[in-house]
């Protein structure tokens, strides 16, 4: 009887802690959404704090009709998609070579990949700017599309190496014996098995591009070329913050990433645990 009572109270305590943690995590998001539906008067006077009264869509209307938000959204989406494609192509080729092909200096290259991943982006943005300036790609989305993979490529390669190593060599050897070339064995046998890891690497690359601020601020000056983060940042004038506009922009900016995670979370979990155990 005493043991059952202890288990019951332990369960209640665990659920209580989980609820408290959940509320702490979810409250900022709730606050953003609620504030986006408030008038400026409600926000400045701290009225109707938890529920908008009156409920208004003026912030969203103003954001879409009177700013370049949709153009910024398109720019951010284009940059993120191109970066993900470049990252996946190059990181797969690099990770496959390092993880499955024997050659001299392989361990050194794998170590350098990790070192480059650990490099803070702020260290290299000046050299990158000088390089883009020389080839005439500053203030162009194409330049940012070339620069972003310098950050995402190192992580994706390092992440995929362990997954490629975990795939049994016998699968590839069987394909080679059947007459397939190494590239055919990679494309038709090995690559399909890496879908969960590809998904995790793609989500990381997309999320990083979607949230990136520093490079976009340095490389893109024209309003029509800016990404969302820079455009929304410029809504603020000195110490004046249009909170309703900022919060509505924050809600719309979060939707693509949330939708992406919801639809691919199954593959994301597989990808994050893939390669953790060696066969």
UniProtKB/TrEMBL annotation:
GO cellular component: plasma membrane
Keyword Transmembrane in annotation: yes
Membrane topology value: Multi-pass membrane protein
Keyword terms of this UniProt record: Cell membrane, Membrane, Transmembrane, Transmembrane helix, Transport
Top-level taxon of origin: Bacteria
Keyword check for DNA damage: no
Membrane-spanning ranges: 12-32, 77-96, 108-132, 144-164, 185-208, 240-264
Gene Ontology biological process terms from the UniProt entry: transmembrane transport
Domain annotation ABC transmembrane type-1: ranges: 73-264
Chief subcellular location: membrane
One Pfam family from the record: BPD_transp_1
InterPro entries for the chain: BP-dep_ABC_trans_perm, MetI-like, MetI-like_sf
Cited CDD domains: TM_PBP2
Places the protein is found: Cell membrane
Family that this chain belongs to: Belongs to the binding-protein-dependent transport system permease family.
Record-given protein name: Carbohydrate ABC transporter permease
Organism of this sequence: Aerophobetes bacterium
């Amino acid at each position: 009887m005493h043991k059952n009572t202890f288990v019951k109270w332990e369960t209640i305590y665990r659920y209580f802690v989980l609820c408290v943690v959940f509320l702490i995590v979810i409250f900022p998001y709730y606050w953003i959404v609620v504030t986006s539906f408030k008038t400026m008067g409600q926000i400045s006077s701290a009225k109707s704090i938890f529920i908008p009264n009156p409920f208004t869509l003026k912030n969203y209307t103003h954001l879409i009709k009177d700013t370049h938000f949709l153009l910024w959204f398109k720019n951010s989406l284009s940059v993120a998609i191109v970066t993900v494609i470049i990252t996946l192509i190059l990181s797969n080729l690099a990770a496959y070579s390092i993880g499955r092909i024997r050659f001299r200096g392989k361990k050194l290259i794998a170590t350098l990949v990790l070192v480059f991943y650990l490099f803070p982006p702020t260290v290299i943005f000046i050299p990158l700017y000088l390089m883009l300036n020389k080839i005439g790609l500053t203030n162009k989305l194409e330049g940012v599309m070339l620069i972003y993979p310098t950050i995402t490529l190192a992580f994706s390669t390092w992440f995929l190496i362990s997954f490629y190593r975990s795939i049994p060599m016998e699968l590839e050897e069987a394909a080679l014996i059947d007459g397939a070339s190494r590239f055919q064995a990679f494309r038709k046998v090995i690559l399909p098995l890496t879908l969960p890891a590809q998904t995790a690497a793609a989500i990381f690359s997309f999320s990083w591009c979607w949230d990136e601020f520093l490079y976009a601020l340095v490389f893109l000056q024209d309003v029509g070329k800016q990404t969302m983060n820079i455009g929304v940042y410029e809504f603020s004038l000195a110490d004046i913050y249009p909170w309703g506009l900022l919060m509505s922009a924050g809600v719309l900016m979060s939707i693509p990433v949330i939708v992406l995670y919801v639809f691919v979370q199954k593959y994301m979990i597989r990808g994050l645990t893939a390669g953790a155990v060696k066969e």
